[in-house]
């Protein structure tokens, strides 16, 4: 029955994504589904329950299942069809063993040379979406209660109260983390760097998603590693067939780095079946699996989209996370769970940066200890859902016909592809001249596969200057 109910759920998920079943529409009754698809009632029930867990439908007592959100994964301006971005080459070539060049650093530096009117490049929300006042009050109260905090030695592995709070919050992601295994880091970037340092040596090959967050490319370059890019789709994430091919035919891969939940920049999340297959694949070939779960708390139903670490039984997954995007961009509080590399990473941390600043950890621990964090995320996610919808509509309304844009279920990033091979590096320059900062697709890969793409942030309310900036970007894109 397992394969049947999953295939049945996928059928209705595609119908919802394409708009064939609109928001608020009722699915056929369980009996009708069973008759129509020649399956048992129990198979129909399991399929509908899976759709509910995935956030496609909701059950109403004695009425059946109703579509929650009919927005397709990718919308195309000027056309009704749904696109899969043509899946940008499922082929792997030995020439993909490339080092990182200076393009990322140059682009980032150029983007900071002049004052910006509107920043659509940063993966950060508007200040009002963060609980800044509550965090400030926590810090003042803690300073009064512990006036000697800056005159005492901090705990080496991180404040115990924070690690316990992280462990409790991890339960909402379907994880059971021992606080003793949690190592507090300076954001997720340091966690990823430490993870790669623990499992690789200079010259080793690391498999990454394509496109991927440009910060990962910078870390790989700084450690003297080589990257092999694995095609990644905006619906199902990294291609496991392509990854398996690379493992079997392209030499030793030492580690895989991926974002299975709300990937940056695509916003996609891997199906759970793909996650278990990925874990088994890496365990079979003794490849370290490094998971970046930075956006996991943005998921509408986080318990139904568990991280890879939730399935890790052998300690082969190094789990990395932070609160930079979800709680406060300024605190830079992250953590990792090192699995079988825990002791090595702990020593690397001590060698690289010694102890972590304690007061910020105490502030975060105090906020996460109760229900304040979950209430904050619920409010933030509701606002981001509105802003994603509004930004998609603005892009489709102002960008050239044929423009494609992802419609992720969570997070604050959209991936846009311009028609006719329009170059977003040129658009980047023209936008800077107008006081608008964007992220061109070229910095999300070592290869020239995404020069017609760009990443935009929907972390700011879509009104006023932001709305005007989208109109300007649309005009500039049409003029390319």
TrEMBL record:
Domain (HTH gntR-type): give its ranges: 2-70
Q: Which CDD domains match?
A: AAT_like, WHTH_GntR
Task: Check the record and name the InterPro entries matching this protein.
Answer: Aminotransferase_I/II_large, HTH_trans_reg/aminotransferase, PyrdxlP-dep_Trfase, PyrdxlP-dep_Trfase_major, PyrdxlP-dep_Trfase_small, Tscrpt_reg_HTH_GntR, WH-like_DNA-bd_sf, WH_DNA-bd_sf
Question: What are this entry's molecular-function GO terms?
Answer: DNA binding; DNA-binding transcription factor activity; pyridoxal phosphate binding; transaminase activity
Does the keyword Disulfide bond feature in the UniProt annotation? no
Keyword annotations from UniProtKB, A to Z:
Aminotransferase, DNA-binding, Pyridoxal phosphate, Transcription, Transcription regulation, Transferase
| PANTHER family, alphabetized | HTH-TYPE TRANSCRIPTIONAL REGULATORY PROTEIN GABR, TRANSCRIPTIONAL REGULATORY PROTEIN
- Which protein family is it in? In the C-terminal section; belongs to the class-I pyridoxal-phosphate-dependent aminotransferase family.
Q: What is this protein called?
A: PLP-dependent aminotransferase family protein
């Amino acid at each position: 029955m397992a394969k049947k109910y999953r295939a049945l759920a996928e059928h209705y998920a595609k119908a919802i994504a394409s708009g064939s079943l609109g928001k608020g529409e009722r699915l056929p009754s369980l009996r009708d589904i069973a008759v129509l698809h020649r399956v048992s009632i129990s198979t129909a029930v399991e399929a509908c329950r899976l759709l509910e867990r995935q956030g496609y439908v909701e059950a109403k007592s004695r009425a059946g299942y109703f579509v929650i959100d009919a927005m397709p994964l990718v919308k195309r301006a000027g056309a009704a069809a749904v696109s899969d971005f043509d899946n940008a080459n499922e082929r792997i070539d030995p020439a993909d063993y490339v080092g990182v060049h200076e393009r990322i650093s140059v682009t980032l530096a150029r983007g900071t040379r002049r004052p910006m009117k509107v920043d659509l490049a940063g993966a950060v929300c508007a200040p009002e979406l963060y609980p800044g006042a509550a965090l400030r009050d926590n810090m003042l109260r803690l300073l009064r209660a512990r006036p000697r905090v800056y005159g005492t030695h901090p705990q080496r592995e991180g404040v115990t109260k924070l690690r316990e709070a992280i462990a409790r919050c991890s339960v909402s992601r379907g994880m059971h983390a021992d606080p003793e295994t949690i190592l507090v880091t300076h954001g997720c970037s340091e966690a990823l760097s430490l993870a790669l340092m623990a499992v690789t040596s200079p010259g080793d090959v690391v498999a990454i998603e394509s496109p991927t967050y440009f910060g990962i490319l910078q870390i790989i370059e700084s450690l003297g590693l080589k990257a092999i890019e694995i095609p990644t789709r905006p619906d199902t994430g990294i291609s496991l067939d392509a990854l398996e091919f690379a493992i079997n035919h392209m030499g030793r891969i030492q580690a895989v780095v991926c974002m299975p939940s709300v990937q940056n920049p695509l916003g996609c999340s891997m199906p759970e079946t793909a996650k278990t297959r990925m874990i088994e694949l890496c365990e079979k070939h003794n490849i370290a699996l490094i998971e970046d779960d930075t956006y996991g708390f943005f998921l509408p139903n986080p318990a139904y989209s568990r991280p890879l670490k939730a399935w890790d039984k052998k300690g082969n997954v190094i789990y990395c996370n932070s609160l930079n995007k979800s709680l406060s961009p300024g605190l830079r509080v992250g953590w990792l769970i090192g699995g079988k590399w825990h002791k090595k990473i702990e020593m690397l941390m001590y060698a690289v940066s010694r102890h972590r600043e304690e007061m910020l950890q105490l502030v975060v621990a105090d906020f996460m200890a109760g229900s304040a964090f979950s209430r904050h995320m619920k409010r933030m996610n509701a606002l981001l859902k509105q802003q994603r919808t509004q930004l998609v509509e603005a892009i489709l309304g102002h960008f050239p016909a044929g423009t494609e844009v992802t419609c992720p279920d969570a997070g604050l990033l959209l991936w846009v592809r311009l028609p006719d091979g329009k170059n977003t590096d040129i658009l980047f320059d023209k936008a800077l001249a107008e006081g608008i900062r964007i992220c061109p697709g070229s910095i999300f890969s070592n290869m020239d596969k995404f020069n017609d793409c760009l990443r935009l942030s929907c972390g700011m309310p879509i009104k006023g200057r932001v709305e005007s900036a989208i109109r300007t970007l649309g005009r500039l894109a049409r003029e390319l």
